[in-house]
Amino acid sequence: MILVTGGAGFIGSNFVLDWLAQGNEPVINLDALTYAGNRENLAAVDGDPRHIFVHGDIGDFELVSRLLAEHQPRAVINFAAESHVDRSIHGPEDFIQTNIVGTFRLLEAVRAWYGQLAPEAKNAFRLLHVSTDEVYGSLAKDDPAFNENNRYEPNSPYSASKAASDHLVRAYHHTYGLPVLTTNCSNNYGPYHFPEKLIPLVIHNALAGKPLPIYGDGQQIRDWLYVKDHCSAIRRVLEGGKLGEVYNVGGWNEKANLDVVHTLCAILDELSPRADGQSYRTQITFVTDRPGHDRRYAIDATKLERELGWKPAETFETGIRKTVQWYLDNQAWVNNVTSGAYRDWLGKQYGANA
Ligand code: NAD
Ligand code: DAU
């Protein structure tokens, strides 16, 4: 039995679906169902006795303690977080609450329960904290990619809150001997990605005939990893990672935002051409830049490959095509996600262009 937090979100739901597709070990899925949590992502395992969904907060010490005592999981994997940089700029409070205070309370609950385990169960237990490359800050054009020894230099309220959570996880290992592992991953993309993030937003807006908003000059670089590859990396670190260690996860796929959007337009032009015969590129609109926008992220995943033999299965070209096809095949999911809360956010962020 494992306990996953945030398993109704983008990466968490992909992780739960993959986990149950690959074995029979049950999952307790604790999720607060914020705007980003969607039970529909888990429709394929609805009613599956191996999947126990619990609606609740990682910051609820009593609830987490009860789940640990009742199910005695061999691992806790913490995906739960507020994850959208733009939202953190508009309102950092929820990020501090979930990413910092929530992670702290989760650690406290795990520490109290772990302390009472028998030695054998103690040896087997792992807490894996899922984090981001954004904690390392921003790279200049020719800087080497981030490795695990880079300094933490978070630049947004989101990345600062994730950095704080990483430090807490590290401290709980160092001080209390909690058996933790941390992964810092680059930008994910794939199925069930909430359409507030660049790739699903562009696919959705393109098909809806809306503007494709590019922040600033569109030359910011992100390092893209197909979500299923992130899930396989987490499984690998869970099974073989050294206690207290950090593993960077990335796909060696650095791309400028404008190039990503051009690629999406080209695939959509091919798979679902506009009725007027024009390219989706004509919908591209340059908008005001994100405040404090990090220029470049790039992950050096050498350690994970060298020590644990992990490599991504998808290239950007194969993964992005699969992703566009998934959105074309799952328009009902997209329509359901574009709910009231999401629409309010679109209005606030993009005003009349929403
Ligand atoms: P997401 O926003 O899609 O999902 C987050 C999930 O956490 C949602 O289901 C939400 O309901 C749940 N949640 C939020 N607050 C909670 C709380 N207090 N208690 C319980 N559940 C809560 O996020 P994501 O993109 O799937 O990211 C998952 C994790 O991976 C995050 O920790 C994020 O920082 C990290 N990460 C994301 C990316 C990426 O590209 N998306 C890359 C690297 C790391
Ligand atoms: O690097 C890992 C991080 O990647 C994760 O930790 C975050 O949870 C995840 O949201 C993501 O952060 P980014 O800020 O990089 O992702 P986002 O999709 O919001 O933006 C990707 C790039 O595209 C970024 O440079 C901003 C730009 N952008 C984004 C949106 C939503 C645009 O140009 N236009 C847009 O409308």
TrEMBL record:
<dbReference type="GO" id="GO:0008460">
    <property type="term" value="F:dTDP-glucose 4,6-dehydratase activity"/>
</dbReference>
<dbReference type="InterPro" id="IPR016040">
    <property type="entry name" value="NAD(P)-bd_dom"/>
</dbReference>
<keyword id="KW-0520">NAD</keyword>
<feature type="domain" description="NAD(P)-binding">
    <location>
        <begin position="3"/>
        <end position="323"/>
    </location>
</feature>
<protein>
    <recommendedName>
        <fullName>dTDP-glucose 4,6-dehydratase</fullName>
        <ecNumber>4.2.1.46</ecNumber>
    </recommendedName>
</protein>
<dbReference type="Pfam" id="PF16363">
    <property type="entry name" value="GDP_Man_Dehyd"/>
</dbReference>
<comment type="similarity">
    <text>Belongs to the NAD(P)-dependent epimerase/dehydratase family. dTDP-glucose dehydratase subfamily.</text>
</comment>
<dbReference type="GO" id="GO:0009225">
    <property type="term" value="P:nucleotide-sugar metabolic process"/>
</dbReference>
<dbReference type="InterPro" id="IPR036291">
    <property type="entry name" value="NAD(P)-bd_dom_sf"/>
</dbReference>
<keyword id="KW-0456">Lyase</keyword>
<dbReference type="InterPro" id="IPR005888">
    <property type="entry name" value="dTDP_Gluc_deHydtase"/>
</dbReference>
